Amino acid sequence: MEYSPPPLFKQGPSALARLVFFVLFALALLISDARFNTLEIVRGVLGAGLYPLQRAALVPRDVFMGATDLAVTSATLRSENEKLRAKDLQLSQQANMAAELAAENTHLRALLQLSQRATTQSLPAEIQYDTRDPFTQKVVIDRGAQQGIQNGSPVVNEDGVIGQVTRVFPLQAEVALLTDKDQAVPVQIVRTGLRSVIYGNPKGDTLDLRFVPISADVQIGDELVTSGLDGIYPLGLPVAKVVRVDKQADTAFARVVCLPIAPVRGAHQLLVLHYVNDVPPRPPEEPDAAAVAKDTKSKEGAKPADSKAASAVKPGDKAAEKPAAAAKPAEKPVEKPAAKSAAEKKASAERKPATEKSGKPQAKPGAQQ
Fold first, then answer.
1. pLDDT in tens, 166-201
2. pTM value?
3. Which residue in 74, 183, 233, 314 could disulfide with 200, CB within 3.0 to 4.6 Å?
């Protein structure tokens, strides 16, 4: 009678053999998938089949996160709504005041028969990316020459000045930010009206207000706006605030450090202004007073020499008119003294024999008288 174990206790390959087989099979699958992407279709099928199960497993988490976001979003929306209402009310008041001032300005200009100084048009733009040069503060916007962007146009946002267009391409434009080291903006202090020029800093974080006398009234917190004297930036755009004032006795100018009012690096949507200045051009510069005085002195010094030369030549003298015969007038005065000296020699020679005969010198005519 043959003995065989029941099917429940039948033994297959050993555990070590199965381990080696599955390890080799896994390595083969890894190599084939890495080199030939053989399991890409299998992964796609398994992912599509398991996606409903994954979403079902993530439902509790999505419900919890959605409830949390709803509570936070509702509170945030309420606070933002209140802020926007307050700002809307403030802006409406400012708009009404600006409209009244504009009407009054128009009336006064018409009364004084003054023309409008400038007109400003704006074009919205959006920053695409920063430039490649890490040592400059420049960005590229999505507007160019085809949209009407011009070189030198000021760029602003709702807070103040951001920069200036420095290069224009057909569909893009390069904007030098206010903090760029090569950027300069004419400004004036709102509180005192003092005018100066503000420059960017090589570090790109602050601004320097230069050419401010040490005796000028500048305080921390003073607001700077564009003065409009350069004909590029309109008058009254917010630029910066004073954060530090250093006055030293050994220098003629104070060191004034400012921070830009507008978020220069955080701005995303911008406005490019097309500023048209109707002010007539400057008159031509007058010559320097020192140069004029020097020229006058040189002319006065030349006049006496000219007058002496003119007096030396007699009017109507033909020798002065002919350059070739210029030496003749100088020869005649030389010949006369020579003839006179010969006559004197002849007279003295005649007197000598008379004195020798008499042995006495003749008396002078003056002595006889």
1. 999 999 999 999 999 889 999 999 999 999 999 998
2. 0.51
3. 183
CB 309 within 8 A of CB 303: no
Structure tokens at 98: 């600006």
Residue type, 72: V
DSSP 8-class letter at 142: S
Distance CA 262, CA 359 (A): 124
CATH superfamily ID and name for 120-277: Rod shape-determining protein MreC, domain 1 (2.40.10.340)
Q: Which of 196, 155, 195 is closest to 179 using CA atoms?
A: 155
The residues, any chain, with a CB within 8 Å of residue 117's CB and separated by 6 or more, are 277, 278, 279
Mapped onto helix, strand or coil, the DSSP state of residue 363 is coil
> For residue 179, what are the CA distances in angstroms to 6, 39, 225?
89, 55, 15
Residue length, the chain? Answer: 369
| Mean pLDDT over each residue of the chain, to the nearest integer | 78
DSSP 168: E
126, 155 Cβ separation under 8 angstroms: no
Token reading at 263: 């978020």
Q: Residue 89 has which token pair?
A: 């009310």
